[in-house]
From TrEMBL:
Enzyme Commission number(s): 1.1.1.88
Reaction(s) catalysed by this chain's protein: (R)-mevalonate + 2 NAD(+) + CoA = (3S)-3-hydroxy-3-methylglutaryl-CoA + 2 NADH + 2 H(+)
Keywords: NAD, Oxidoreductase
Family: Belongs to the HMG-CoA reductase family.
Record pathway: Metabolic intermediate metabolism; (R)-mevalonate degradation; (S)-3-hydroxy-3-methylglutaryl-CoA from (R)-mevalonate: step 1/1
InterPro entries: HMG_CoA_Rdtase, HMG_CoA_Rdtase_bac-typ, HMG_CoA_Rdtase_cat_sf, HMG_CoA_Rdtase_NAD(P)-bd_sf, HMG_CoA_Rdtase_sub-bd_dom_sf
Source organism superkingdom: Bacteria
Protein's UniProt name: 3-hydroxy-3-methylglutaryl coenzyme A reductase
NCBIfam families: HMG_CoA_R_NAD (TIGR00532)
GO molecular function: hydroxymethylglutaryl-CoA reductase (NADH) activity; hydroxymethylglutaryl-CoA reductase (NADPH) activity
GO biological process, one term: coenzyme A metabolic process
């Protein structure tokens, strides 16, 4: 089918957008109209709120919103909200939380909370000349010209922490950066940081234009390329950990505590040295992190990008978690760079986000960092525990069973039959189909 480009799509009404899509791409079938409309919220005001989160919105896309209880974090008990569609994520996190609750739970430490942004510019000038200008003139002006922007943030205890000139000319001709670090307190701070950086760009241009330190030819060479925050925040870092005596590990898989600890540590070490394994290993960690990030209205794309960049910070992609066995003590931890907020954005608008934050006791941004690191560590512990004992498929496929049965149109009675049937068996797609056909043939 040949499709035609559309003019003014964003100006069409919601129904107009749907009518055009169904007519142009979906052969005019009414069923597709119905699919979109059945996900509209009956509350018109709430539906309008959701539509205004983004552009060209025609419906809502639901994800399961589940709860992982029994998380003992720094002496306090939490139930974690998790928005995730993948089978077994919530179950694995819950199981890990229950495993550690009588062993002291999870301990967390905020290592640092600095966020970063850059003004990227091109300037054909000797580096030492620019550095002198930065140290004795520009740096002070950058702070001064952003005072109006940073006033409210400074009143809350945050603001611009430092500004540095970075010489990148060895990697790209005439390329420099103004690298700034920020404390945005309880907000994620993207708009604040970008506003400061855009003012940096203006100030840089003005100060160089009026300076007597540079020739006219040098002044004419200045190009402000862009002013933008970085989602790589290696100094916005939280550590979460668990530990206990090996004799207290008490895994119920049938292997000894010592063998469990040894195999677990080997699995983590493999992820530390083998990028193919580390990628799947860290994906599992982010299953736990992202589910809570989404439930609390934060940017899971930013948290993913930052975590994976951090995992490759020494030039090889590695595990985000680590494990040691020393003097009979098993210790497992994660250092997670993550920038999140609990004010601003969706946190003040989305009803379920507000519910999630209330459920978590209305944490500070640092408190949420701790919770997210724990969620990732718990998910990784649950996955590795399965991998080194019963294998990942036994638990995962049991959780996936209902998805398979729903695809096959099973009745509630048939679903209950399968839950009983696989109580002491490993679920496989092939076996589900065989048993389903046998059941229907009776």
């Amino acid at each position: 089918m040949d499709h035609k480009p559309v003019e003014g799509f964003s100006k069409l009404t919601k129904q107009g957008k749907i009518d055009w899509l169904v007519s142009e791409y979906l052969e005019g079938k009414e069923e597709y109209q119905n699919i979109l409309k059945q996900y509209w919220n009956e509350n018109a005001d709430l539906q309008k709120l959701h539509e205004e989160f983004s552009e060209n919105t025609i419906s809502n896309f639901y994800m399961p919103y589940g709860i992982a209880p029994n998380f003992l974090i720094d002496g306090k008990l939490f139930a974690l909200p998790m928005a995730v569609e993948e089978s077994s994520v919530v179950a694995a996190a819950s199981k890990a939380a229950k495993f550690w609750i009588d062993k002291g739970g999870f301990k967390t430490t905020i290592i640092n909370n600095e966020k970063l942004g850059h003004t990227h510019f091109i300037f054909n000038v000797e580096p030492h000349k620019l550095l002198h200008f930065f140290n004795f003139n520009l740096k002070k002006k950058l702070f001064e010209t952003t005072e109006a922007i940073t006033s409210n943030m400074r009143n809350r205890g945050g603001g611009i922490l430092d500004i540095k000139l970075v010489d990148k000319t060895a990697e790209m001709p005439n390329y420099y950066q103004l690298k700034a670090s920020f404390d945005t307190v309880d907000s994620m701070g993207a708009n604040f940081i970008n506003s400061c950086l855009e003012q940096f760009g203006k100030t840089l241009k003005q100060e160089i234009a009026t300076s007597e330190d540079f020739t006219q030819e040098e002044k004419n060479s200045l190009q402000i390329v862009m002013n933008i925050l970085s989602n790589f925040t290696p100094d916005c870092l939280v550590r979460a950990e668990v530990s206990c005596k090996i004799e207290d590990l008490k895994d119920d898989s049938g292997i000894s505590n010592e063998e469990f600890a040894r195999k677990f540590k080997q699995a983590v070490t493999i992820a530390e040295i083998e990028p193919f394994r580390a990628t799947t290993h860290n994906k599992g960690i982010m299953n736990g992190v992202d589910a809570v990030v989404i439930a609390t209205g934060n940017d899971f794309r930013a948290t993913e990008a930052c975590a994976h960049a951090y995992a490759a910070r020494d030039g090889q992609y590695r595990s985000l978690t680590h494990c040691t066995i020393d003097n009979g003590i098993f210790r497992f931890w994660i250092d997670l760079p993550i920038s999140v907020g609990v004010v601003g954005g969706l946190t003040n608008l989305h009803p379920l986000v507000k519910f999630s934050l209330a459920l978590l006791g209305k944490p500070s941004a640092q408190g949420l960092m701790s919770i997210l690191a724990v969620s990732g560590l718990a998910q990784n512990f649950g996955a590795l525990r399965s991998l080194v004992t019963t294998g990942i498929q036994k638990g995962h496929m049991k959780m996936h069973l209902l998805n398979i049965l729903n695809q096959m149109g099973a009745t509630e009675e048939e679903k209950q039959h399968f839950v009983t049937y696989f109580k002491d068996k490993t679920v496989s797609h092939h076996e589900v189909i065989n048993e389903f056909n046998r059941l229907r043939a009776q």
